[in-house]
Amino acid sequence: MDRRRLPALLTTASLVLLAGCVSIERLPAPPGKLSTALPLGFDAPVRFAYDSPDGFRQHSAQNLQRMKAAAGDGPINILALSGGGAGGAFGAGALVGWSRSGRRPEFQLVTGVSVGALIAPLAYLGPAWDAQLTEALTGDSSSDLLQRDLTGLMLGQPAMYRGQPLIDLVDRFVTDQLLLAVAHEYQRGRMLLIETTDLDKGEAVIWDMGAIAARGGSDARLLFRNVLVASASIPVVFPPVMIRVSENGETYDEMHVDGGASVPLFIGPEIASLVADGVPRVGDVRVYALVNGQLSREPGTTRIGARKILVRGFDVSLTHGTRAALGLAFATARHYGMDFKLTAIPNAFRFGGALDFKPEHMKALFDFAARCGEADQLWKSFGDTYQDAITAREPQPGDLPGCPVSSTTAPAMPSAPNVPMAH
């Protein structure tokens, strides 16, 4: 054997051996069915899970009453924010532009999944927080999110990229001031719901962020931050988040990941309509579903390579999962007599995919959405948006994308970047 190769071989062998020895540090759950656990430091429920029909029945009735009280004599406005990774720049820009138009309503309910969860608290607090929303989603704050952790993967760590940059990003905006503002709006009856996926149970969990904020203190701030980070933690891309809970005197850690792993978009009472009868109907309800992505993926040759396949596979899964979730949300809205509007990144916009966090691409997408929002060219019917998505031709280099609502006065984006599709 060549002695010069011996150190390298020993290093490789050591890494292989260590890979079988390193695991995530966590307190394992006790055996048996677990359904009533509370986050450590909380003595009242602040969440409910999809595997509890009774919980949905109870929460749905309570939530509807809260929203009606918050709306007063006006309509109940619901904003549902989907997942989509870097596509969150579209959602943030759309909301900021909508504020500039003077037509953005106050929402009695805001729901968020994945990157939609990161947007949701700032969207919930209204136009006064648009500066923070702009800072968070225009690129600079998220440009270093994808920091590779290849050594960690070899050592048995759970993700391709480090989790700390995402934690730092969320921690920067989850301030005591933000929690106080969320708690104040919660006391008015408005609701902010965020979804994560409990990977151990294989179920979606919906967190009442207003109730968490109203609890106050360091435990509330930590849980609020961890729920947002967990909802945005795409499995294998980012590490899962451990949330410590207590049940029947037992303390253990739940493993939570991206909410989009289970349901990529939701509106408040939709699951209740499937699992329970007698959920009260409400009057004038307007649902705005904001999709932080595109509703079709153009065919193309996928390059050989783990990351290319991962990116393409994730984008395809997200696209089809979002379509299914939108179909459920629309059917529920129609069942309850709600007005349902939808917007998404137009197919003609050359979107680089959910993991394209290049600052110049995110800023271009943000600016485009902001112009469309300011021109009131965002919202279409479910049928029109879906039909446009599945019949649109592939964007060509030099195309100037129009806004989601076609109009001769809709602002095109003359500086549209020629972003390659994520094949």
Strand count, sense and barrel status of the largest sheet are: 11 strands, mixed
Termini separation: 43 Å
Task: Assign an overall shape.
Answer: globular
* H and E string: HEEHEHEHHHHHEEHHEEHEHEHEH
Mean pLDDT: 79
By DSSP (H or I, 4+ residues per run), the number of helices equals 14
Classify the helix fraction into a percent range. Answer: 40-55%
In quaternary terms, these chains amount to single chain
Which radius of gyration do the C-alpha atoms yield? 22 Å
Structural class determined from secondary elements: alpha/beta
> Could you tell me the strand content as a percent range?
5-15%
**DSSP summary, beta strand count:** 11
User: Unreliable stretches, pLDDT < 50, 5 or more residues?
Assistant: 1-23, 271-276, 407-423
Q: Which descriptors apply to this entry?
A:
single chain; 423 residues; alpha/beta; 11-stranded mixed β-sheet; 14 helices; 42% helix; 14% strand
Description of the molecule:
The protein has 423 residues and is α/β, with parallel strands linked by helices. The protein is built from 14 helices and eleven strands. Strands 1, 2, 3, 4, 5, 6, 7, 8, 9, 10 and 11 form an eleven-stranded mixed sheet that branches. The two termini are 43 Å apart.
What order do the helices and strands come in, and which of them pair?
Elements: H1 6-19, E1 38-39, E2 47-49, H2 53-71, E3 76-81, H3 88-101, E4 109-113, H4 115-125, H5 130-137, H6 150-154, H7 164-173, H8 176-187, E5 191-198, E6 203-208, H9 209-215, H10 217-231, E7 241-247, E8 250-257, H11 270-275, E9 285-290, H12 306-335, E10 339-343, H13 359-374, E11 380-381, H14 382-391
Parallel strand pairs: 3-4, 3-9, 4-5, 9-10
Antiparallel strand pairs: 1-7, 2-6, 5-6, 5-8, 7-8, 10-11
Helix pairs in contact: 3-4, 3-5, 3-13, 4-8, 7-10, 8-9, 9-10
